[in-house]
Amino acid sequence: MPRWTLIAALVFATPALAQDRAAAERCAAGLQPMGQQIFMRALPGVLGGGSVSDSLRSAAASVALSAAMNRDTARQAAEAASQCLALAKPG
């Protein structure tokens, strides 16, 4: 397969992947519990058209406060959740 064909396939497939809530939820199932919790709190904001970073920041702050976890642990969990949330981001 020529290289340009592969690149074109990835470019045209990206919008479909960017709106796949089921894939995002499958991705989140593989996260650690805190990452899953942050993902679930941030998901409505992302699906509503908010940015992944803003939704994550809000969700990580609320999880960190409610679960008495430290900032570094919340940041690591949010970074892991961000990859899954990107799958659910509307195009």
How would you describe the overall organization of this protein?
With 91 residues, the chain is mainly alpha-helical. Helix content is 80%, strand content 0%. The protein is built from five helices and no strands. The protein has helices spanning 3-17, 21-29, 33-47, 52-67, 71-88. Helix 4 (52-67) packs antiparallel against helix 5. The longest helix has 18 residues, at 71-88. The protein is globular, with a radius of gyration of 15 Å.
Task: Describe the secondary-structure layout.
Layout: H1 3-17, H2 21-29, H3 33-47, H4 52-67, H5 71-88
Helix pairs in contact: 2-5, 3-4, 3-5, 4-5
Quick structural summary:
The chain contains 5 helices and no strands. The chain is mainly α and 91 residues long.
Q: Which class do the helix and strand fractions yield? A: mainly alpha
Q: Kindly state the mean pLDDT as a whole number?
A: 80
Radius of gyration: 15 Å
Give the helix tally.
5
Give the overall shape, derived from the CA principal axes: globular
Order of helices and strands: HHHHH
Give a quick account of the main beta sheet: strands, pairing sense, barrel closure: none
Amino-to-carboxy terminus distance = 28 Å
Could you tell me the strand content as a percent range? under 5%
Query: What is the count of β-strands?
Result: 0
Helix content: over 70%
Query: What are the low-pLDDT stretches, counting only 5+ consecutive residues below 50?
Result: 1-18
